[in-house]
Design a protein that fits this description.
With 64 residues, the protein is mainly α. It is built from three helices and no strands. Helix 1 packs across helix 2 and helix 2 crosses helix 3. The longest helix is centred in the last third of the chain and has 27 residues. It starts with a helix and ends with a helix.
Length: 64
Amino acid sequence: MFSLVNVFGLREILVREALPFAVSLTVAQIFFKWGSFALELIGFLALWLTLGAMLHLVQDTLKK
């Protein structure tokens, strides 16, 4: 995480990841009731990664 902040800067990371983070956290809180913190954390992180990648692809496509 420290390397990411060093390379991109905190502001850039917050601008890029705020929306996928908020959506993933909301979905995890509402729908992920698997009875295990570890499984729910993995699900949250996987969803955050997926939404972040999808948003990045959409933004790159619109820039072209």
